[in-house]
Request: fold
Amino acid sequence: MRLILGLGPRDHVADMLKSLKWMDIETRIKYARCILMFKIKHDMAPGYLSSSFVPLTDVHRYNTRGSARGNIFVTGGPRSAHKRTLGYLGANDWNNLPTEIRQVRSLCEFKTKCKNYFITN
Reply:
């Protein structure tokens, strides 16, 4: 990438990624988790995955900001090992997406809006 753009060894990779509109590896993983969560939410994923995630409205009947936004209940406890699971990270990534992106119905449109969101933020 440095060779193609003609940059030196001390130039930051983040700047190059932004100029090419590419995502870094951590952001690509988060993007892939959001796509998987979209598929789970819209019954495009296997049943064993879909049954692992519960909407917040099914956990309690209180009218909170999270339940109004359509958040997914984040399961788990205080262990650091649990915070690396799909149940925790996937639900957090989904809940942190803007509502207008989460309300999209088609997978293709979701991928486009989600990618644009991660590139600009």
Summary: The mean pLDDT is 85.
